[in-house]
Amino acid sequence: MAINYRAFSTSAFYEDLGIFRLIQLIQHDQGTAHFIEDYLSPLISYDKEYGTELLLTLAKYFELDRSKKLTAHKLHVVRQTLYHRLEKIKKILDFDFDMPENRLNVEIALKAYQLKQQVGVPAK
């Protein structure tokens, strides 16, 4: 199964993919699906039920190094809307994703989810 690594890295070299090298190796592992489910399923379900894009908001927030100003700009919303969304996300996930360990787990789950979506592997 071919993966478009350009979606995750500007480099054409496999060695430059970082965490995606590990995620790619375990993408079909059931444990990966459970990991994604543990950290993201409430948010994925909420987005589906209410037609929101909170998962996208969170992904963009982490992608932009948690810069609220840049995230709001990229999402074309005012900062107050972004603050509201981030608080909603924390409430839905029921933990503070700004704490280092939680943040790492959520970021890895997001990357694994994105990779699974790209290759068409459903993440429960």
From TrEMBL:
Signal peptide: none annotated. It holds the Pfam family HTH_30. Residues 54-112 form the PucR C-terminal helix-turn-helix domain. InterPro entries: CdaR-like_regulators, PucR_C-HTH_dom, PucR_C-HTH_sf. This is PucR C-terminal helix-turn-helix domain-containing protein. It comes from Peribacillus muralis.
